[in-house]
Amino acid sequence: MLKIELKLSFDTEDEAKGYILGFVDKIKVIEPKELHDKILKKAESVVAFYKHEK
After folding, report:
1. Neighbour count for residue 20 (Cβ, 10 Å)
2. pTM score, two decimals?
3. What's 40's DSSP letter?
């Protein structure tokens, strides 16, 4: 698997989260740790939402 390290800048945290989550499992936040944790929580909430779908 090819790995490329990038530095990205966003105007807002919500913009960053939306952009990153749009790549699903193709991008991983390394820093800042706080954003990494928030992305993980958001992804977990999406999985929980779809697991409880009827």
Report:
1. 21
2. 0.79
3. H
